[in-house]
Write a structure and sequence with these properties.
By secondary structure, this protein is an alpha+beta fold. The chain has a single domain, classed as Nuclear Transport Factor 2, Chain: A (Roll), CATH 3.10.450. It contains 2 helices and 4 strands. The chain has a 4-stranded antiparallel β-sheet. A hairpin with a 2-residue loop joins strand 1 and strand 2. It is globular, with a radius of gyration of 14 Å. The mean pLDDT is 89.
């Protein structure tokens, strides 16, 4: 059984591997949620990182962040998915 701490570490490692070290340099934990998807129990881990889009002047200052939610199997700690997390306005 993957603990919350292990799930977060796995999600962060997955993000760094999938997105690269430059995009994930200032990775931050934002949310953790316990959920059930079908018959599987999962952790949903939301991480944020600075926006790197060059056309956004706020991105250069580090004010804007991109949010992604990672689904991690509780039983194994395996990261199943990474999705863009839209913020409500």
């Amino acid at each position: 059984m993957a603990t919350i701490k292990e799930a977060v570490l796995n999600a962060m490692a997955f993000a760094r591997e999938a997105l690269g070290l430059e995009r994930t340099e200032n990775l931050q934990l934002e949310e953790i949620e316990s959920a059930q998807e079908g018959m599987d129990y999962v952790w949903r881990i939301t991480l944020s990182m600075p926006e790197t889009q060059a056309t956004n002047p706020l991105a250069a200052l580090g004010f804007r962040r991109v949010y992604k939610t990672f689904t991690v199997m509780k039983s194994t700690g395996e990261v199943l998915s990474m999705k863009i997390r839209e913020l409500s306005s």
